[in-house]
Amino acid sequence: MLVDKIEEIAGILMKYHHFIITSHTNLDGDALGSELALYFMLQQLHKDVIIINQDPIPYIYTFLPGISEIVCYEDLEENYFLNINPDTVLITLDSSNLERIGTISQNIDTVKLIVNIDHHPSNTNFGHLNYIDASSSSVGEIVLQLGQALECKLTEQIATALYTAIITDTGSFRFANTGVKTFYSTFLLVKAGAKPHLIANHIYANQKLSGLKLLSDALQKLQVDPVSKLSWTVVTRDMIERNSAKDEETEGIADKILSIKDIQVSAFFRETSEGKTKISFRSKGEFNVDHFSRIFGGGGHPNAAGCQLEGNINDIVSKVITALKRATLILNKGK
After folding, report:
1. At what angle do helices 180-191 and 156-169 cross, to 10 degrees?
2. Looking at residue 77, what DSSP letter applies?
3. What is the pTM of this model?
């Protein structure tokens, strides 16, 4: 069921006592910041709450208050979900479909309700209750509104978590999803104790040497098509292993190759440890990468989206770039 008012979600959270919070695989700042903020809010209300994620926490987010409270799925006791309280509510944040939360999605038959809170236009409304606000820059913005509806105190811990959520999902306020509501939200967060310079240093000035070497290798493979105004590059498992890097250290490559003058769309292909290919799309013009990525079963936002495909990475690159060139040329001809 679609829910129009955040107060309806607040009412559900007030009604129940036991909660599991989760988000998508390949955790980012919006996922973690929103989870932790909601965790602290529910604690204020004396609820029983736990955060469980499929993937480990990227090191750049280990500064977040409460980060040690997050439980990795593989560390759960056997049959954990069989032994939860029958009135437990699962809250999913920033996940456009149920599969995005990973293996957890296969173990949720014992929860009472699924509350789906998201800002992706491509959300499949998989929850029993779905609050989807595509006008919000981030789930962090939505969780701030939810906290206000719950009449929770906006502490420095919550403010730090939510500022992290917003700054990362807006690309430091550079993306088109940044609006008046975004700046008003961050005004409230800074007023409550969030420290923008410290948060930015943790996220953007904390890169490991292995990540820089991996970026160098990715730029060596960079290709540009000036006709379709498209750039793309690839990171294979061999490149990651050769640089002793982690998958999380590829974050930002799609944005970096979009920054080239006159380029309007970028595609970054990363080979995963499972042998699949994760593709990140970015755009800074009218080209809607959310719509394009849906062709391949993905989704996201108009200027930032992604998908994951199975098969040989070289074949995937060829197929996707061919489709991208065709789509961008059609758009450019229509101007």
Report:
1. 150
2. P
3. 0.90
Tokens of 325: 């060139």
As its CATH architecture, domain 209-333 has Roll (3.10)
- Looking at the DSSP bridge assignments, the partners of residue 278 are 270, 308
**Side chain identity at residue 301, one-letter code:** H
Tell me, which fold does domain 6-204 have in CATH? inorganic pyrophosphatase (n-terminal core) (3.90.1640)
Q: At what angle do helices 156-169 and 29-44 cross, to 10 degrees?
A: 160
Kindly report, residue by residue over 222-251, the tens digit of the pLDDT. 999 999 999 999 999 999 999 999 999 999
Q: How far is CA 168 from CA 31, 203, 285, in A?
A: 10, 8, 20
E strand segments, the chain: 18-23, 48-53, 71-72, 89-93, 113-118, 129-132, 223-225, 230-235, 265-271, 277-283, 299-301, 304-309
Judge whether 6-204 and 209-333 match in fold: no
CB 230 within 8 A of CB 264: yes
- CA 113: distance to chain centroid? 22
Q: Domain extents for the chain?
A: 6-204, 209-333
Q: What is the DSSP letter of 268?
A: E
DSSP state string for 271-335: E-TTS-EEEEEEESSS--HHHHHHTTT-EEETTEEEEEE-S-HHHHHHHHHHHHHHHHHHHHHT-
- Distance from the Cα of residue 74 to its chain's centroid: 21
**Tell me: the pLDDT tens digits for 36-92?**
999 999 999 999 999 999 999 999 999 999 999 999 999 998 889 988 999 999 999
**Do residues 74 and 55 lie in contact, with contact meaning Cβ atoms separated by under 8 Å?**
no
Q: Is 149 helix (H, G, I), strand (E, B) or coil?
A: helix
| Residue whose entry in the numeric block shows the structure tokens 């050769």 | 242
CA distance 14 to 295: 40
